[in-house]
């Protein structure tokens, strides 16, 4: 991609009590082979040193734009606040506890620039433990026709590794902050009404799974929200459920409080990796 064809993009990160990981996350963005970007970080009233760490990096690199919330807005509200500041053609999402491969943005921008009908896309996640040691791969369906087959079961665009067209995002309601979880799934459902979805068969991030994110109570709540959004996708956005979608909903409800979180994650990885089913 020639220099004159490299559009300006925005990387959006929200952060809450991420002092252990956010430095590495920021560095993985600053070290990208793609250089024409801004990094917008929204700090959500952390009680640790997250804000101090963010400021340290912001003083060294003018591409970093920071904002500190007066009250805690959670991930959805903070994301919406950050979106208003983003000036790029595309929005790249980055979590404060993950790590992006150096050519991640380069590959994602190239894909979006050569697929004008795609409104958002993602790629492959490398599942890692708290120390960022890999232990599994999470691949997603690549083509729109296969992605749509899964859209009533889970978010088929991996949000931590996603890129979005800003002009289309501006037409949506943004992240629904009152959900508390799965706001990204809700946004994927809405933005799918404006164009096609896609994923690339490339490793984009190391996705950190730590003990807090793996709690059974948290996953059970997320399951409940996901089932609700599945029905919303059916009745509001007119996606037609297949027999497998109905079975999936029943299994989600039955296993909500009966299966440990690690087992749920294992089963979810199997389901995601069976890309075209």
Q: How would you portray this structure in words?
A:
With 277 residues, the chain is α/β, with parallel strands linked by helices. 39% of the residues lie in helices and 21% in strands. It has one domain (3-213): Alpha-Beta Complex (Spore Coat Polysaccharide Biosynthesis Protein SpsA, Chain A). It contains 10 helices and 9 strands. Strand 2, helix 2 and strand 3 (64-68) form a beta-alpha-beta unit. Helix 8 packs antiparallel against helix 9. It is globular and about 55 Å long.
Instruction: Sketch the topology as an H/E string, one letter per element.
Output: EHEHEHEEHEEHEHHEHHH
Supply the CATH architecture: Alpha-Beta Complex
Mean pLDDT: 92
Top-tier CATH class: Alpha Beta
Beta content:
15-25%
User: Termini distance?
Assistant: 35 Å
The low-pLDDT segments are none
**CATH fold call:** Spore Coat Polysaccharide Biosynthesis Protein SpsA, Chain A
The helix content is 25-40%
Number of domains: 1
Shape: globular
Largest sheet entry: 9 strands, mixed
Structure annotation, total helices:
10
The whole-angstrom Rg is: 18 Å
By DSSP, the count of extended strands is 9
The SS-based structural class is alpha/beta
């Amino acid at each position: 991609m020639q220099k004159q064809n490299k559009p300006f993009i925005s990387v959006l990160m929200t952060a809450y009590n991420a002092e252990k990981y956010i430095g590495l996350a920021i560095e993985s963005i600053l070290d990208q082979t793609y250089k024409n970007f801004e990094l917008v970080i929204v700090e959500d009233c952390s009680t640790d040193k997250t804000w101090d760490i963010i400021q340290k990096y912001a003083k060294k690199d003018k591409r970093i734009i920071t904002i500190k919330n007066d009250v805690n807005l959670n991930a959805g509200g903070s994301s919406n606040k950050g979106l208003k500041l983003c000036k790029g053609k595309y929005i790249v999402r980055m979590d404060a506890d993950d790590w992006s491969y150096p050519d991640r943005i380069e590959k994602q921008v190239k894909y979006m620039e050569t697929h004008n009908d795609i409104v958002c896309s993602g790629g492959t996640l490398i599942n890692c433990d708290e120390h960022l040691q890999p232990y599994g791969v999470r691949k997603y369906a690549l083509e729109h026709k296969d992605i749509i087959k899964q859209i009533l079961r889970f978010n088929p665009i991996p949000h931590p590794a996603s890129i979005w067209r800003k002009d289309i995002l501006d037409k949506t309601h943004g992240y629904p902050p009152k959900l508390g979880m799965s706001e990204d799934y809700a946004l994927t459902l809405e933005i799918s009404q404006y164009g096609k979805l896609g994923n690339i068969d490339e490793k984009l991030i190391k996705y950190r799974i730590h003990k807090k994110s793996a709690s059974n109570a948290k996953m059970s709540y997320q399951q409940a929200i996901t089932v609700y959004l599945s029905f919303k996708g059916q009745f509001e956005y007119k996606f037609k459920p297949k027999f497998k979608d109905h079975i999936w909903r029943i299994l989600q409800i039955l296993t909500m409080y009966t299966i440990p979180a690690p087992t749920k994650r294992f089963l979810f990885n199997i389901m995601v990796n069976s890309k075209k089913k």
